[in-house]
Amino acid sequence: MDNNDILKDLANAVIEGDNELAMSSAKAVLENNMDPLQAVEEGLSKGMDVIGRQFESGEVFLPELLMAANAFKAAMDILKPELEAQKKSTTKMGTVLLGTVKGDLHNIGKNIVATVLDTNGFEVIDIGIDNSPLTFIEQAEKAQVDIIGLSCLMTTTMPAQREVIQTLSEMNKRDKYKVIVGGGPVTQEWADQIGADGYSESAVQAVNLVKGLLDIG
User: Can you tell me the distance from the alpha carbon of 51 to that of 46, in angstroms, rounded to the nearest whole number?
Assistant: First the structure.
């Protein structure tokens, strides 16, 4: 089996929520001496992007999304030791705080962004779901982060992203942090409207966005 077939199998395992295929494909990555980071970015993450779009358009529902997340995790459990070994040999690229905004209890997309950032050498502070603007700011101050990432999956919680940015401005801390936004209903237009520093549609795009904001090649 060549590398492209393995990447396709990883993506399909996530799309189909197939834990067995996810694990066997992850093992094939290691057996073929493939770059595990490539497996995450070009296999698993691509699968999550597809299932995420299907979820947003109503083609699949929460059970399928959870099955996809479980398949992603099953593969990651096998790839993680190799990813950790690689990470030790790279210098820390920056610190990113990630959380889901107030009123939103969804964390699958955020968790995948956290995983992909982590595997790319960033320190990730994940504060979980349902966070108030002050919680974001307090945690950012405490961890001395470079970037604050605001996630939401519902149109009703999108205004909470704007509230975090407004609160930063009111506390005279807006210039201290780059703020990025993402999640199902979020668009570049919305990011521009609320004064965010960036928006990404996928986990892999989030890595490139963060690198660009921190001037990392």
Answer: 9
- Res 217 pLDDT > 70: no
CA distance 171 to 102: 19
Flag whether pLDDT at 87 surpasses 80: no
Q: Which residue has the tokens 């790279």?
A: 90
- Going by C-alpha positions, the residue among 157, 130, 126, 160 that lies closest to residue 140 is 126
Other Cβ atoms closer than 10 A to 192 = 10
pLDDT tens-digit readout, 129-187: 999 999 999 999 999 999 999 999 889 999 999 999 999 999 999 999 999 999 989 99
Domains of the chain are 3-88 (1.10.1240.10), 95-213 (3.40.50.280)
Nearest alpha carbon to residue 203 among 1, 5, 45, 35: 45
Please give the Cα distance from 93 to 106 (Å, whole number). Answer: 27
Helix, strand, or coil here: 151? Answer: strand
DSSP sequence for 49-71: HHHHHHHHTTSS-HHHHHHHHHH
pLDDT at 35: 92
